[in-house]
Known about the structure:
The structure is a single chain. By secondary structure, the protein is of the alpha/beta class. The protein has two domains: about 10-105, Heat Shock Protein 90 (2-Layer Sandwich); about 115-235, 3-Layer(aba) Sandwich (Rossmann fold), CATH 3.40.50. It has nine helices and eight strands.
Amino acid sequence: MADKTPGTITIATGSMQLDESGLQSLHNGEALQAGRYVFVEVTDEGRGIETRDIARLFEPFFTTKFTGRGLGMAVVFGIVKGHQGAIEVDSTPGSGSRVRVYLPACDASPEQPGDDASTSSAQTGEGFILVVDDETAVREIIARMLTTAGHTVISAADGNEALALFRQHADKLTGCVVDVSMPEMDGHALCRKLTSLRKTSCSSAATRQRCSNVAVSTIPTWLSCKSRLKSASCWIR
């Protein structure tokens, strides 16, 4: 049960120099080089996290919530790691938590719209894509990304809705993006049913394994940087 006691959530940003000793205390810090990093920090006044749980916080499927799936923090860690970043977690039971995400600072000027030729060339998708995810925000982000790349997108919130849409548009669909962890029918089961109806490319969010005739890739990798939009568009086209 979530703590319903009123409290304050504080969000802060900044930049700082990190040396090797400072990086060693961060999750994924040992893989990074010393230098200037920007950070986003979130602090709350909640229950805090037990010390024994902090060490496992980013393990896939680890959760202390009865209804949790244990994938949220693992996905966050994967995205941050893909950006050559690190995460710091500071928490004391009963005193709230502070989570800080570090990303390498860039001294180059930001790209201006239209300056990057690869951006326009990425927007050449011609696919008709089915996006399936039970989390509305995730589903909308992926749909928006693919639409920006030029694809036509339809979406479903669960496996049964996905199957209905697949049957309705089977002659036009060129691929599917499917969440692995969903209630009632998970992504693997859905992909097997889809491929039994018609062989199709189906991308899953949490694994690179191959399942039946379904080509599986990683959604967080696609979201890691702007340039990956071109790769995602080319792959799914």
